[in-house]
Design goal:
The complex is a heterodimer of chains A (533) and B (354).
Chain A (H helix, E strand, L loop, with lengths): L1 H16 L14 E6 L15 H10 L4 E3 L7 E3 L2 E6 L5 E6 L13 H14 L5 H4 L8 H4 E5 L2 E5 L6 H7 L10 H6 L8 H4 L9 E7 L3 E6 L12 E6 L3 H10 L4 E2 L4 H7 L5 E16 L9 H8 L4 H5 L7 E3 L21 H10 L7 E7 L4 H13 L4 E7 L1 H9 L5 E6 L6 H8 L15 H4 L5 H12 L3 H18 L2 E14 L2 E2 L2 E2 L6 E2 L4 E2 L1
Parallel strand pairs in A: 1-10, 1-11, 14-15, 14-16
Antiparallel strand pairs in A: 2-3, 4-5, 5-7, 6-7, 8-9, 9-10, 11-17, 12-16, 12-17, 13-17, 18-21, 19-20
Helix pairs in contact in A: 11-13, 18-19
Chain B lengths: L19 H30 L4 H6 L5 H10 L6 H13 L13 H36 L4 H15 L2 H15 L24 H7 L3 H38 L2 H8 L4 H30 L2 H6 L5 H10 L3 H29 L5
Helix pairs in contact in B: 1-14, 5-6, 5-9, 5-11, 5-14, 6-9, 7-9, 8-9, 9-11, 11-14, 13-14
The chains are: A alpha+beta (533), B mainly alpha (354).
Amino acid sequence: MIARRTILAAGLALGLALPGAMPAQAGTPPNMLVMAKSISDLITLDPAEVFEFTGGEVIGNIYDRVMMFEAEDLTTLVGGVVEGFEVSADGKTITFQVRPGQTFHSGNPVTAEDVAFSLRRVVYLNKTPAFILTQFGWDKDNVDGFIKATGPMTLTVTNNSDFSAGLLLNALSAGVGSVVDMKNVMSNAKDGDYGYEWLKNHSAGSGPYVLKDWKANELVSLEANDNHRHGKPAMKRVLLRHVPEPAAQRLLIEKGDVDMARNLTPDQIKGLQGAAGVVVEVAPKAESVYFATNNSHPILSDPKVVQALRYAVDYDGMANTFLTGQYKVHQSFWPSGLWASLEKNPFTYDLDKAKALLAEAGHGGGFKITIDTLTTPPFPEIAQSLQQSLSKIGITSEITLAEGKTLWPKYRARKHELIVARWSPDYVDPHSNADAFAHNPDNRTEAKLTGKPAWRTSWEDKEITALTEAAAKELDLVKRKEMYLDLQAKFQERAPFNMMFQSAEQVARRDNVSGFVSGANFDLVFYRLVTKK
Amino acid sequence: MADAQSPVPEGTAAKPFPPPVFTKIFRQVFTVTLTFIGLTAITFIIGRVMPADPVLAIVGDRASREVYEATYIQLGLDKPLLEQYWIYLSNVLSGEFGKSIMTTRDVLDDLIRFFPATLELATVATLAGIFLGVPMGVLAAVNQGRWIDHLVRVVGLFGYSVPIFWLGMVALLIFYGWLGWLPGPGRLDVYYDGIVSPDTGIILLDAAMQKEWDIFRNALHHLVLPASILATFALAYIARMTRSFMLDQLNQEYVLTARVKGLSPLGVIWRHAFRNVLVQLITIIGLTYASLLEGSVLTETIFAWPGIGQYITTSLFNADMNAVIGGTVVVGICFVGINLLSDALYRLADPRAR
């Protein structure tokens, strides 16, 4: 009897699980955008702290910034929460007028006081991206005097550095320029933390979407803000589903269970060609892949040796094989397609030239080095290609793969010999990358300018550093552009860096989805124009 | 007045002090405490000496020296290792596992959220492994050397040697991609997301309690593939071990005696031989269950299943040591709990153990 009952129960359970008992809902809801993406890098949603790719993308849709590149025109910097600004004659003070009629998700009006608080809060908290603002001479003791609401909708921002007003305006379009709802944030503040703990996983913005839920390593759920200044977004809900495995992402997009797949490998993109109902789009990105040699190394400190290494890279070979569609050759530190980028790739794969340069440097017999890089594709493949071509000019190399958390401390401690790494600008101004790669005002170990790759490689070039500073201060845009072009050309010849590739994001979407905008920088991804047929 | 030399009255047996049951409980508590201290200490030390930098996990590789140093001090990394461990242990004892770098939430909250997903998956997989693996093992032992035995052994070998990652991908491709019989990765279709409140975190249970039967069935559908993949491993191990234990028993003289006495073949197998392998089987099943609770990371990755395996692994890659230690403690509790449960079941299965 018991056995019979057991069999019956098992049969019932099986019946429930059997296919056809309840077919899965086909596709995704018409007013919901569902994306398959790896979101394991998301560790905070506080705009004063966000510095990761997924975090940058999400807060870009939750918060409007002081200045913005809008989804409709990614090339023009315009006012975000502000409708206009005026720069004083000396270029030091910018007066902003806040757009009237804007409200936060809470219903509170957006005022100049909120804007001032948002910027000051970044400086008070002093988290990693705070340098984008503190480089203008602000610190927690003086910032109140430099960023002030002078009226309900008027704000003045005074630059306490020699940097240009143009650079300041560009910096205000970064994530740290996000405007938070002061009343809401401060009502959730604890122990004078300016709402830091709360804002890590809540939202208090005025952007087109409201954070509904963030479950780490599971999903991010956003709901449309019907009162956004650009109007109600077509997609009522946006869901980022954490699907870490690219092959699973491919299956989901093919079956129509997600609208977009964001982390597909080149093989999977290739496999999707011709798939019914799936379209692959390529969006150029500003991430650069480069190698850096250590300038304190007895052999690698010789510029001729570094120059030889530049000619020993099979740029096209890599770009046309395992990097197809995801990276293109670009040899300047400021990405192609952006204002003031040097669109010149002077280095080719020329082993004879590389050998000659090595011989000239007195190392014709070759030497041994280590190559450090990340474990994630395509870094091991790039390192292997490099290893192979270096062996052809007599350089023996050993590859060490490591996770970022292990690799970066080594790089920051100047313990690498040759490292293959990546970099993405913090905001859309050439100074963002110039400051990192070409500016090293104090090369001493105790200076610990660990955030700058130039310092990490022990590279001190006074002329290049001075040029970087001068370009950041230049008010005339035409002159400034010329200075950056000159800086990039000199950098290409002298720096212990070899910029090799620039990335592109390959996104697979269902053919009924349109309007997804993905700009060059990691935080310029917009959902508000997405529609579904 | 009783004789001072013989405090125990005549005719009554001397009762040991403390009573054996207390000694047993004391021993268990002592062992469990020692296990946890050892577990937290080893995980803590590994976390501190491994080359990954927990500060960089928070501040990112571009952080300035000031930001880096402020966070270093905030995390208490400037204190001696022993002091750091003592602070951590004191916090754990008061129920504070600290905050996770990765999720920004209390580790305890994370564990409450992630563990039920794994518990649901591992429990269903283990049950499937038991209900299929045990009969298969018995059947193979009874038919030793015949085709059915070979078949079970091949299935066992397959389940044990085929990489779970590959098996999961192939199953997903066939049953979801090609045939469309089962849903893809995730615990629910997006249509059902957020409808059931996570009272227990086990969606099947929550949906049933809230009488959301559509969601219950959808969750069950989503569970079939990942649970089957894990069950393959459980089934293979349990079937192989059951076969081996049963073969051992079937060659014993008491089995021959029972047969000679004219007992039915089924009675001999199930009432005599099988009862004698129960204790060993409980051990095997307990170990399998525990290993599925902590080791289903690959299945969780393929099926986008937000479980504790994925949580610990991702935390480890992010040098999120509070989360790693918290996860390890939970896995440790599972092992200890399953051991205690196995001990209790031994007593039920074997009168000599009572």
